[in-house]
């Protein structure tokens, strides 16, 4: 057993050295704002439609720090996941497909004192990744514009939770956000006799602290039914990042270089409320609602994204619902202990985009998930089970205006959640 624990600890430390890439994207919409925001649900929650606020005791859940007290004094939970995503972009008769994937998240959860739990891990925050171009011919002059972008922002978090009274848990996360995103625009005149061009490069670097406060209240309805009400508040983050910018105009032979720390990189205040209902530890059903006040978040005009403070961001409403079912988690039969999961979600976009007619609008995002938890390791006398969590996900991004790209994503995620008796001492016979 000790050798198993050492191997697990070593794997966790090595995994922390690997950059968390999240669900890397090829979306042209990632040109705006902080790119495509990653789902903060991990493992079990991701396959349940992304619900997080009322989830408790179903493995690691950094989405609500109040859940950390669900582990007992003998338990250590290690959760790590990877994913693969196939994306499809369509605009009229034009269709393009891409493939992406990588390490998603790492999370550990354990007790540190009586009535107090802790979690530490690393999660993706947002991703930028795109490459597209346009070609225009006017008055026998052909202009080729090429746009590329890459990078991501990640967050390392540390959280604590405490049970001040029976059936109430409160907790908080402090996260360090870091990373950078790079954007380039290359414009060249390809028709004869001229080949003049303009090159622009922008790099946004962000290092910031983010806080999340959570609470969960457990209501035993009877011997078999448990209702959990959960809430999370993330205060607005007002901070500045750093911009590195190069503008090279070959027509005037001018090169402008700019480096400054006046880049606003605000994050919105977030309010979340949700619940789960558990029936005899076999069926869990839940739902979440989230509001993010993006309209008050500032973003630097020096990024030259074509938007202004008035039209760049939208306030976001997100709705998630999901369930998990196991025939009999106490049975020795493998199939009866498998966890079956599913869910649905919807949200509007936090960013606006602009079509070729100059119209500015956002998009709607719809998603569906399906998943399985396959038991791989049982400690019979304690009721602890480790799982391989497999999740399937479909997402559709539907723009509100015409002449914009519709996106579809088909993803599969695989996670390993080790539920281990970490702190038990062996007795001499």
UniProtKB/TrEMBL annotation:
Q: Where in the cell is it found?
A: Cell outer membrane
User: A single GO CC term, please?
Assistant: cell outer membrane
Where does the signal sequence lie? 1-22
Q: Which GO terms describe its molecular function?
A: long-chain fatty acid transporting porin activity
* Membrane topology recorded in Swiss-Prot or TrEMBL: Multi-pass membrane protein
Keywords of the record: Cell outer membrane, Membrane, Signal, Transmembrane, Transmembrane beta strand
Question: Is the RNA-binding keyword given for this protein?
Answer: no
User: Where does the UniProt entry say this protein principally localizes?
Assistant: membrane
Q: Which InterPro entries match?
A: OMPP1/FadL/TodX (IPR005017)
Q: Which family is this protein grouped under?
A: Belongs to the OmpP1/FadL family.
Annotated protein name in UniProt: Long-subunit fatty acid transport protein
- What organism is listed for this UniProt entry? Dysgonomonas alginatilytica
